[in-house]
UniProtKB/TrEMBL annotation:
Entry binding sites for K(+): 131-132, 239, 334, 450
Pfam families named among the record's database cross-references: TrkH (PF02386)
Protein name (record): Trk system potassium uptake protein
One annotated Gene Ontology cellular component of this protein: plasma membrane
Native source species: Sulfitobacter brevis
Described purpose of this protein according to its UniProt entry: Low-affinity potassium transport system. Interacts with Trk system potassium uptake protein TrkA.
GO MF annotation list: metal ion binding; potassium:chloride symporter activity
InterPro entries attached to this UniProt entry: Cat_transpt, TrkH
Family: Belongs to the TrkH potassium transport family.
Membrane topology: Multi-pass membrane protein
Top-rank taxon, per record: Bacteria
Transmembrane intervals: 26-46, 58-78, 90-111, 148-170, 199-221, 257-278, 290-312, 347-372, 408-430, 474-494
Organism phylogeny: Bacteria, Pseudomonadati, Pseudomonadota, Alphaproteobacteria, Rhodobacterales
PANTHER family referenced in this protein's UniProt entry, alphabetically: TRK SYSTEM POTASSIUM UPTAKE PROTEIN, TRK SYSTEM POTASSIUM UPTAKE PROTEIN TRKG-RELATED
Keywords: Cell inner membrane, Cell membrane, Ion transport, Membrane, Metal-binding, Potassium, Potassium transport, Transmembrane, Transmembrane helix, Transport
Length: 501
């Protein structure tokens, strides 16, 4: 990857001037990442060898297919790596990664035991790499360990991948107001626009250390080594895949506190961790995203705790623990479930639907709309109210003490509009496949916000997506991709103007 300059070159090269769209830089990077994904299959292969259930050959086959396939794509496009990436190529690269990697990542599910259909395999791989956590697999308790750890690896790789995309590409592409963090990237990485490789290196170190700390914490509370490893991978990535059909309900109550802490840490902006490591001890405290996210969790936990006290009186510790764990899981987009919160009453169920549409901080592994967009929205509304009250006054919405640029406000408002419209369209499309209203609207929200479980008896915390028809699964697969890439990065590819040289 060092051969690609990660500058976003707005000038057109010779191929663009001749009316041709040069795909080689995109193909080169995608090919390398596919090859890396293939090499990652060594881990589940070794796990299956150690388990001795005869499934290691599946990962050997898929590793060879994926590694060779990715390498051939990269070699075929290697002669185009001298040019920088244009805005057009960067949009295409961002989306292509999350389309092709799930296809190759689905191979172990198709060839493994039990073998999945192409639809189910791609759904599971897309859910993994987008860290959604929705699953179509059943009988997880008895599944080969190679497949279980592969699910965890997919989510872990997807988590680090989305951090890099959120810190490098989306601010430059001005997607959904992410450009507000562009100057922040300069401050964080030494006054120069960081390359993807440099960011990946610095963030990966912190990401690995957080994962190791999570593994050790789970081990200290009694998880076995395999469960601790897989659940650490899916906790830090805020992915939510578990080794058990009961999800996190398979473990003791103390584990929920540890998981809650690490889910919150993973949902905070990783740029702040870099600053913290470099000696800026107030980096996290001064970030309005962090303060808003933690305050939101505190308020929501208090509300659900009070509601649970009416449902389960005299069990205050359990009420607090279940409220903390499940709210943190949903708001961060992790998607673990320790209990069937559909039994908590209609108020709590409605709350969980809207909690999932909040999300964590930008530049983290968390998903959904994100806290900073709500903060910008509220700042804009507050400014408008002041203007109505004082028509002759001059008021400017501010974020983190700085005026919010007009293009940021426009991007954020556009994002909210597209999110609501897309949510409605996906819900309608799902209802046309025969699903009931609750399953359709909650499934649309769970996929588009990359939460994981929906609501209702079918896809709620006590169920999964296995019984849905193939059409519904493909709709949800597309929604997971669109939501993970902040909508606009995908939608721009559907415009005619994008493909004009």
């Amino acid at each position: 990857m060092s051969g690609v300059r990660w500058s976003l070159d707005t000038a057109r090269g010779p191929s663009q001037r001749c009316g041709m769209f040069d795909m080689r830089p995109v193909g080169y990077v995608v090919g390398l990442l596919v090859a890396v994904l293939g090499l990652a299959m060594i881990v589940p292969m070794l796990v299956d060898l150690a388990q001795g259930r005869g499934h290691a050959i599946v990962f050997l086959q898929t590793m060879l297919i994926t590694t060779l396939g990715g390498s051939m794509i990269a070699l075929a496009c290697a002669n185009g790596v001298k040019s920088g990436l244009t805005i057009q190529q960067t949009f295409l690269l961002t989306t292509s990664i999350w389309i092709l990697l799930p296809v190759f990542g689905a191979l172990p599910f198709m060839l493994g035991a039990p073998a999945s259909s192409f639809t189910d395999a791609v759904f599971e791989a897309m859910s993994g790499l987008t860290t959604t956590g929705a699953t179509v697999l059943t009988g997880l308790d008895d599944m080969p360990k190679g497949l279980l750890i592969w699910r965890g690896i997919l989510q872990w790789l997807g988590g680090i991948g989305i951090i890099v995309v959120a810190m490098v590409f989306l601010p430059e592409l001005k997607v959904g107001g992410m450009q507000i963090f562009k100057s922040e990237a300069f401050d964080t990485f030494g006054k120069i626009l960081p390359r993807a490789g440099q960011i990946a290196t610095q963030i990966s170190v912190i990401y690995v250390w957080l994962t190791l700390a999570c593994v050790l914490s789970y081990l200290a509370l009694g998880m076995n080594t395999f469960d601790a490893t897989v659940h650490a991978l899916t906790t830090i990535s805020t992915g939510g895949f578990s080794n058990y059909d009961a999800s996190f309900g398979a473990f003791s109550g103390r584990m929920e506190y540890v998981a809650s802490i690490f889910m919150i840490l993973a949902a905070l902006p990783f740029a702040r961790y870099v600053q913290l490591v470099n000696g800026n001890m107030t980096a996290l405290h001064r970030d309005p995203q962090v303060k808003g996210f933690v305050a939101t969790i505190a308020v929501l936990v208090a509300i659900i705790f009070v509601a649970l006290q009416h449902v389960f009186p005299q069990h205050w510790e359990q009420s607090f623990r279940e409220a903390l764990f499940n709210i943190t899981s949903i708001i961060s987009g992790t998607g673990y479930a320790s209990v069937d919160y559909m039994q908590w009453g209609s108020f709590a169920v409605a709350m969980f639907f809207f909690i999932g549409l909040i999300g964590g901080c930008a530049g983290s592994t968390a998903c959904s709309i994100k806290i900073f967009r709500y903060q910008i929205l509220f700042a804009s509304v507050r400014t408008q109210l002041r203007r109505i009250r004082s028509p002759h006054g001059i008021f400017t919405p501010r974020y983190a003490g700085r005026p919010i640029a007009a293009d940021v406000l426009t991007s954020v408002m556009s994002f909210f509009m597209f999110f609501v419209v897309t949510l409605g369209l996906v819900a309608v499309a799902l209802s046309m496949t025969g699903l009931d209203f609750v399953t359709s609207i909650s499934g649309a929200g769970a996929a588009l916000a990359n939460i994981g479980p929906g609501l209702g008896d079918i896809i709620g915390p006590a169920g999964n997506f296995s019984t849905l028809n193939d059409t519904a699964k493909w709709i949800l697969t597309a929604a997971m991709l669109i939501g993970r890439l902040e909508l606009m990065a995908v939608y721009v590819l559907l415009t005619v103007k994008f493909w004009r040289a």
